[in-house]
Amino acid sequence: MADTPDQLLERWVIGQSGDTGPWVRDQLVLLSQSTKERDLHKFLGLAPRRLGKADLDLSAKDLTDADSALPGWRPDGWSIDGAARVLGLLRFKGARPFAEIFKDLRRTSDAAEMIALYRGLPLYPEPEALDFEVGEGLRSNLKPVFEAIAHRNPFPRDVFDQHRWNHMILKALFIEVALAPITGLKQRANPELARILVDFAKERWAAGRPLAPEHWISVAPFRDDPAIRPELDQAIADGHLTEGALT
Amino acid sequence: MMLIDPHAHMVSRTTDDYAAMAASGVVAVIEPAFWLGQPRTFVGTYVDYLSSIVGFERFRAGQFGIRHYCTVGLNSKEANNEELAEGVMEWLPRFALKEGVVAIGEIGYDEQTPLEDKYFRLQLELAKELNLPVMIHTPHRDKKRGTTRSMDVCEEHGIDPSMVIIDHNNEETAAETLQRGYWAGFTIYPSTKMGNERMVELLKQYGSERIIVDSACDWGISDCLGVAKTATLALERGIPQEVVHRVCYQNALDAYGQSGQMNEEDWLNPSAIDQRTLFEGNTILRGGREPHIEVPGERRAGQLIIE
Q: What is the ipTM of this complex?
């Protein structure tokens, strides 16, 4: 049977933790039996102190395994302490619903911890119960927290409704976050998003500000939609845009 | 010259200040938890404050290539609100374990009330339990006696002076602080604390051992370039470079580095994940993007056009 995501995380973290491996193992056993949140807090605090902050060293096979365990999951770019934190949270038995524990962790997290917590989103139980927490992450002023949700993460593609998806793409363009690493960018394109992006482009042109080349990725599939086609033609006529950018 | 400002309340400062500090050579700041100029009245606002100094403020500093650390604690002023103090004490241990928390502080006395004394002692015990350094705010009023008392209480709780930074020293308190083996912080803060000419005289008298210069810049009329200006003035007035390096950089690193949470590598050779996310000091991994460093004050004075 294929490994589950938490089994993969355990293998990667312990495989890379050298002498600290036994400590990680003991902690995971403790957490799987513990209902005391203090045990979890302590583990989350100690993880970077004991394990360091190096990138997870993942092979091509590891990445394939990740995608088999959870389609679209791309843990490249995770750090060892971040992976350990997510793993600890997944294994923690706890006495409260997961979403309540998560909320509490998120609102007291330091910057690196918050990034790790949000990277783990696709692995957590009851994604619907995390709706508010995900919203808080997207509204965050910490760009890397936004990126932890948006980039290399299947959660938005699989869970977001259209409104939230569209606003994630818009915010990414606003705060200059790359669109290419967003999982499901093409599948989730929709006419409403295309319309908003055309409006947004017109605002930028009016302000004399440049547009990201990625701006048109989510517009291209709907370039012949009568709702936006006349405006695109006008922009081409005005020299703001080329047909080539829309293909 | 690389500088550290080990006492700066950056939540109250502008991005221009960050830019100016970076340009002056500041590579790291320590933000001690303190009050915000007016007392908080809810435990939740205090918790959110602690959360912002381990979170957003760290990110903000990183955008200017400055590493941000902090201390967490219940300050002496707000310790006088018992209901608030009790609530904060419940949350504090969680924050003390966050990354980049280099001490419990700033704690100590303000009016030297029984409640201040109670929470000062409780937090000394917390620092001892977690093996963290302590940053002590010495009082503005009845300062000399308050400083002596702060050190007496530390010793009563079995805390090693080498783990304690006594801050806001002046000519009257320096000798005792140093003689008893504590780190002695001097805050270059206009009008109320120490001026940098006086600081240079102190360096002539005491040398560099266990002396730390900081700005304590905050919401009041203060100067975020306190450390840089002191370093420059000291060099101009003939203080040896080595002394300036120790009091404006190395001693702070040695004192707060005892937490295990602050290393020179953090800014000289940051981890790959930090370079991708929280620290823009090195542009190599960020596609060669220009660091956000500009001439100090340029935005305010020289530039009429806002793009």
A: 0.87
